[in-house]
Amino acid sequence: MLDLTTLFIERFGTSTAEQSVQYYFSPGRVNLIGEHIDYNGGQVLPIAISQGIRAAVRPTTNKLIRIQSINNNGELTVDIDTEGFAKRPNNWMNYPLGVIYKLWKSQQKLKKHLRIFETGFEMLIDSNLPMGSGLSSSAALEVVVAYVLFNQSYKKNLNQNDFMRVTLAILCQKAENDFVGVKCGIMDQFAVAMSKQNHALLLECDTLRYQYVPFQMRKYAMVILNTNKPRALADSKYNERKAECEQALNIIKKHSAIKQLCEATLNDLDFIDNPTLLRRARHVITENTRVTQTAKALIEGNWIQVGELLNLSHQSLRDDYEVTGFELDTLSSIARHTEGCVGSRMTGAGFGGCAIAIVKNELLEDFKITVANEYHKQTGLRLGIYDVSAQDGVKEL
Length: 397
Ligand code: GLA
What we know:
single chain, alpha+beta, Alpha-Beta Plaits, four-stranded antiparallel sheet
């Protein structure tokens, strides 16, 4: 385990008493179910996981923000005075930069000056979330930067301030939409900001109403299975799916008084002639129903039913939404057919990345070995496996 303090001092120099280093943790997330419907006004059911980003932060008295990463090269240096907000060629930097820029912009509009923009900070991050694997490494990064900015500016105890947490999740989503250019929904940032230990977060994405659903597995365990297939062209295909949903919505709107695709019913599909748009809309409508059913099954502790719903979700994402691909399909099928597994599906945006599986406790170790071997045999790729537990959202340690 790397000693973050030592590395921080190595990179940024020693600290004086009044400028002590603070520590933060921002988790990744897996979505149990409710995929590709957050941007259609649907419900989602994510949990924050124990893998994530650790950050060491020290306030400074100049107007410089400096961010370095142990996992990626380079330093993001933002000079507030010269408004150095131009996009960087080094991709990872644009996530924190987008957040800083959005917050700075909103302060300009309000004609207010946040403390942080009159001072500065140094930050070193260390992530054990594989990048681009669908576990929300980008949202974890955005949210921890926003959290630090809010924490240092408002001096409120954000660990217990849900209103501020929701505000920063929205800010981070806007940063990713407008600055980075991925038209993502609110799920990831909200999950990273608002999750609660031992609970799944049931979020209505149109109203942002949410509730916590107990997540206690008892006789079962959940694992993340990483295809280790990089998500090629994921961002452009993601934006393409979003545009297809908008087209389907516009067609249905001519006949039904709905505002979001998730409000449509299966009968509304009769209005859509284009077979691709019809399948996209069918996924959205059926997936939203599966979220309600999964939340109910979780409350009842009915893991067999949760597993069945996960399988149906994968099928719909494969056939109707077409965001799975060879590796994810192979992997979740192997998992599903291995003894002890009650259900498996892709999680996150898809096009590579990770799947999840629910497995009987006593068969878990055998399951891991069988699935890893079989997956390697069928794809030539090495499988990543991580145990899952439901954790809190971002926090100061
Ligand atoms: C990505 C996006 C989310 C969501 C998922 C798919 O993770 O960031 O907003 O749309 O894909 O469910």
